[in-house]
Design goal:
Elements lengths: L3 E3 L2 E3 L4 H5 L9 H17 L5 H32 L11 H33 L3 E2 L7 H15 L6 E3 L13 E8 L6 E7 L7 E5 L2 E4 H7 L1 H4 L4 E12 L13 H12 L4 E7 L4 H11 L6 E4 L8 H5 L30 H7 L2 E5 L8 H10 L3 E8 L7 H11 L3 E6 L7 H13 L3 E3 L6 E2 L2 E9 L2 E9 L11 E8 L2 H15 L10 E4 L3 H17 L6 E5 L5 H12 L4 E5 L16 E5 L5 E2 L2 E5 L6 E5 L5 H5 L1 E7 L3 H15 L5 E4 L5 E4 L11 H11 L5
Parallel strand pairs: 3-8, 10-11, 13-14, 14-15, 16-27, 19-24, 21-22, 22-23
Antiparallel strand pairs: 1-2, 4-6, 5-6, 5-9, 7-8, 9-10, 12-19, 13-17, 17-18, 18-19, 20-27, 21-25, 23-28, 25-26, 26-27, 28-29
């Protein structure tokens, strides 16, 4: 394999014999590791010290996470098995073994989830005067008011679909909640099956009186007689289907990607089922009918206590009961952007000319940093051009509004809208058309690659020269999720970064083949090699007696080449700390393989989302932040960017941040060599360990003004 150029350095691939010296069973199964991540979410819901409405929210998050896992990962695995394309996993498991493990483990987790809701959270909600009731528990007055609501708002949108020789079994859309209804004709005595879809646009839990709720399907079930007049309603059973909803878009240079994606989104509705959830009291004959008509296997059926679809608990968690939630937190303006002597907004460009600014969301306000940067750029008559990537953004996005304003004022605006952002495809198609109509140049990236990098470049006329201002982040340009996701972003006017960004945008929008950058590492060409090179450099530093360590923070760690580089570093004696939120396929603590590797996971009120790499550098620490997780798709099939931080202040901040996450005094989960995650939330004396996120909130509250 020829040497690869990366970040201004030449990297040679690891010797072929290096991998052969590593044991064959060195990788954990990625699907099992993902289920372990969702189990950690469930443990937060099970923890009685978690505020009550946050426990309800974690139950909803667990459910929606599992929905997506089945729609994408399980569906993809089944498709590969069916087409004969499935191969043995890196863990050594055969595809069918992986699928069997998923069925077994997900069944156990869903049972725990249901138990937590029914035995812990539901009674606790009742004690807090928030009641989730069955219809039979309602008062006569509540029943009457619900009947009026049913006739006015629910009945008009219901469509009962019969199944008989003249009416084939209806299509059941993915994730829809349905009632299987058995009715009998009193004259003929014949029984019939019908399906009633619970309207998804109506509230999942209907409020009958203040803080008293009943599931919508129970209201519909109670008044089924109005839907089937003249028939005897013999029974009803709730069920829910999960379908394959992963997109498969074939790209070529000639085809319009937007049109291809729209066609695929229509086909997505008819993906094959991969899971059938039913109430555990379902009639066996009705279950047989559903299984036969939907074409699901026995192990894909999940009987559960009602109500099904607890993703609806988000609405309960949103209730205005602050005493049952995490303490209120409002992000402040970053100290480098805070104006002490005036109430006016800071001049972001002037602040960036003074120094690089490292913002840490949600602790530093997105609105007064990244959003303000774009809004000022749009309004500034000296700004000539704005170039921006959009992967996900909010429904009423001020980011999109700023770009539209910039284009309408005559600025050159290039927006790379990633149409294939999973489950946000419809929204991104809408943004693409809105931006095009405003006069923006809209492109959809490089054929065959998904653009996941978080980049913004502003070109400004200053006297006789042009200056470039840049933002490079780890999270999306979404003001709403910026209040919930933990992310980092660099605002810089550094000429090297500006030149790198210009070259990268030219590559994304045109035919540039630039692959070498000065202060960036860019996937798919240089990012993996750049990371592996730096890991190997730490091995050389360690052998030379210089300070050496590797510390990585990522959402997931799956890439085998990166994992093997970490194993070789550990075998050489280099300390390796890994802060991984989700999937980790590396086995830590294996004698002779990974004895110096520690893996920690932290979950909390904010979604840990930043990606950070810290290297000892022989005494000169090297720190990078970027958009890429350490997975095949990110390193091989996406455009990702990481930027090297400069200056002792930012390096020290990120080093301290990693210290905090890996500290024995910090609450976290620890990964063992067998793939087991163990929660460490209390010290030996029973006191609770430090919560990283609460610690950072308090540190921001204490910090005032510029240094």
């Amino acid at each position: 394999m020829p040497p690869a150029k990366t970040g201004g350095a030449t990297v040679t691939a690891a010797p072929a014999h290096a991998e052969s010296e590593l044991p064959l069973d060195r990788f954990l199964d990625r699907e099992g590791s993902w289920l372990a991540f969702n189990e950690r979410v469930l443990e937060l819901a099970e923890d009685p010290s978690t505020p009550l409405l946050e426990r309800a929210r974690y139950l909803a998050i667990f459910a929606s996470n599992l929905d997506e896992f089945f729609m994408v990962r399980v569906a993809g695995l089944k498709r590969r098995i069916a087409t004969g394309l499935a191969v043995r996993a890196a863990s050594g498991l055969q595809p069918r073994e992986v699928l069997e493990n998923i069925w077994s483990r997900s069944r156990a987790l869903m049972a725990r989830h249901s138990t937590c809701f029914h035995h812990d959270v539901l009674p606790a909600l009742g004690e807090a005067d928030i009641q989730l009731l069955r219809f039979d528990d309602l008062t006569d007055g509540e029943r009457q008011s619900l009947y009026a609501l049913f006739r006015e708002r629910v009945f008009p949108v219901l469509t009962p679909l019969a199944v008989d020789p003249a009416h084939p079994f209806p299509y059941i859309s993915g994730l829809s909640l349905n009632l299987a209804v058995i009715v009998r004709n009193p004259r003929s005595g014949n029984e019939h099956f019908a399906r009633v879809k619970v309207p998804p646009l109506l509230p999942r839990f209907v409020e009958t009186s203040p803080a008293r709720f009943v599931p919508l399907e129970e209201v519909i079930a109670e008044f089924l007689g109005d839907l089937f007049p003249g028939m005897d309603v013999l029974g009803h059973h709730a069920f829910r289907v999960t379908r394959n909803e992963d997109l498969e878009v074939e790209e070529d240079d000639a085809e319009n990607l937007l049109q291809a994606l729209e066609r695929e989104l229509m086909r997505r509705r008819f993906g094959p089922p991969v899971r059938l959830e039913v109430e555990e009291t379902i009639d066996p004959h009705v279950l047989d009918l559903l299984v036969r008509e939907l074409g699901v296997g026995e192990k894909e059926v999940y009987p559960l206590p009602g109500p099904l679809d607890l993703t609806g608990l988000h609405a309960i968690a949103d209730l205005d009961r602050p005493e049952l939630k995490f303490g209120r937190f409002v992000a402040g303006t970053h100290r480098d952007l805070a104006e002490v002597e005036t109430a006016q907004a800071a001049d972001v460009f002037a602040a960036m000319r003074k120094r690089d600014i490292l913002v840490h969301h949600p602790y530093d306000s997105f609105a007064t940093s990244v959003q303000a940067f774009l809004e000022q750029a749009a309004a500034d008559p000296n700004v000539l051009a704005i170039k921006q990537t959009l992967y996900r953004t909010s429904g009423d996005s001020p980011i999109v509004d700023a770009l539209v304003d910039a284009a309408e004022s005559g600025k050159q605006v290039l927006v790379l809208v990633e149409l294939k952002a999973r489950f946000d495809e419809h929204a991104n198609i809408t943004w693409a058309r809105k931006l095009e109509q405003a006069g923006c140049h809209v492109v959809h990236g490089v054929v065959g690659l998904k653009t996941h990098s978080k980049l913004c470049l502003v070109v400004r006329q200053e006297g006789d020269a042009l200056r470039r201002y840049c933002h490079i982040g780890t999270g999306n340009y979404n003001p709403k999720t910026a209040r919930l996701y933990e992310d980092l972003g660099l605002l810089t006017a550094d000429p090297q970064v500006g030149e790198d960004m210009s070259n990268l945008f030219n590559r994304l929008s045109g035919y540039s083949r630039a692959q070498s950058f000065r202060r960036l590492l860019v996937a798919p060409h240089s990012l993996r090699n750049g990371l592996v090179e730096r890991i190997e450099r730490e091995v050389a530093n360690h052998e030379a007696g210089l300070p050496a360590y590797v510390r990585l923070k990522s959402n997931s760690l799956v890439d085998e080449l990166v994992i093997d580089a970490l194993y070789r570093a550990s075998q050489a004696g280099v300390p390796v700390d890994l802060w991984i939120r989700g999937i980790c396929a590396l086995r830590p603590g294996v004698p002779g393989l990974s004895e110096t590797i520690r893996v920690r996971s932290i979950l909390g009120r904010f979604l840990e989302h930043s990606r950070v790499w810290v290297f000892a550098g022989g005494g000169e620490p090297e720190v990078w932040i970027g958009s890429a997780d350490l997975m095949h798709r990110n390193l091989d099939r996406r455009v990702e960017a990481a930027v090297r931080l400069r200056g002792d202040r930012h390096r020290d901040e990120m080093t301290s941040f990693m210290d905090l996450g890996m500290s024995a005094e910090t609450a976290s989960w620890h990964l063992d060599r067998d793939g087991t995650w163990t929660r460490h939330a209390t010290a030996a004396d029973g006191t609770r360990l430090r919560d990283v996120q609460e610690h950072l909130i308090e540190s921001r509250r204490r910090r005032r003004g510029p240094e």
